[in-house]
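Justification of resources, computational component.

The compute hours requested in this renewal are based largely on the per-chain cost of generating structure records like the one below. Each record pairs the submitted sequence with a full structure-token output. That output is archived, and it is also reused by downstream analysis tasks.
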Amino acid sequence: MFSSFVTDAVVVVIVLGFMIFIHELGHFLAAKYFGVRVLVFSLGFGKRLLGFTRGDTDYRLSALPFGGYVKMAGDEPSEMHAGDAGEFLGRPRWQRFVVVIMGPAMNVALALGLLTGLYHFHHQKPAYQEQPTRIGDVEPDSPAAKAGIVAGDLITRYDGLSNPKWEDVEIKTLTTVNEALPVEVEREGQKLTLSVTPQAKGPNRIGDAGWYPYVPGTIDSVEPDLPAGQAGLKAGDQIVALDGQKVLFWPRLAYLIQNGNGKEIAFTILRDGQERSLRLKPALTDLRGEKVWRIGVGFRSSMVVRQLPWGQAIQSALRDNLRNSLATFDVLGKILTRRMSTRSLSGPIGIAQLSGDAYRAGIPELLMFVCFISLQLGIFNLLPIPVLDGGVIFLLFIESLIRRDLSREVKERFAQVGIVFLLLLAVFVMYNDILKSFRPY
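The structure output for this chain reads:
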């Protein structure tokens, strides 16, 4: 457990440090381009640990790793300004806007560029996401079951989305809680119009409908000393039913076998286009220190891995980043209107845990996580909150409307409100992370 904590901490410092460096580099490059003097380029806050000075700029590494900043001449409203062209507030508003917007823009560019490169060399996704949105399994007493949805149904429309992809269905469900969503399914050639109401589930209290995609149980490997091998099952066979009950989502097989407590089960197998029936009695075996009932088969990976051409990789990266951006704004809107729980927000602790999980899952998963967090960082900084880039842009917009700069006192009060708000937000999200650790459901 301690080693996992250390891993999470190291990974999140590296991930956040890299993304903050890219963000601040955007401000730095734009400021330099317009002739604004950059006094400090810091990774981290607080006490200066090490660094070097070149020209007007002190490049430093500071003690607190969660953050970073670029300090420009004349960028503090409380400072006395000489009015020279090298000060941030001495530049035209459009130039100040470019300097400010370049930070979030670099985060978005990082998410797009990194995802494009990843997709070109390693585009991985669950196989079911490339197939029709057919239901493979439905949890008993779940919102989907209460709506009358059954395994085998094909979703043809979901909350206005016609012939949606599973990715669209999953995001729409995750970002909706306690709100009825119209769903149209095709069942045995007939169209049925139903309504499903996702319920909050898990530590993040995100929406869950209790349905799963169609993922057939095609056997990949067989252990010869266990019941499946002794009965002659082999790779390529597909388990289609247990005791006459169709199985369209292979993880359900393990549940049904465990739930049978070792009793003999009638299996229906599809081999070379023909169905075969046989009866197997699961064996009680030791698996990772636990006693479980098994028949001794492994199933084919449900992941598809390919390399996309550059053009297709760019299109896919654009589409996925746009989908994530729209989902982020949707969630923020629902949190503000109390239609989703604030527990869906994650702070440093939650991000550290997710960073560690992504690292342990492999480099592709870690890069996907970096892209996602970089996009979130860019979006968060564009919110019209004082002190953040979005707050500065908001003030620039107001000044453009009234055609004059706001007074120093107004800007100071605006900044003070922002600092207090961010401090309260930081305390809240950390409390949220701790609460989710001790109350996972």
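Residues 347 and 428 are 8 Å apart (CA to CA). The longest helix spans residues 2-33.
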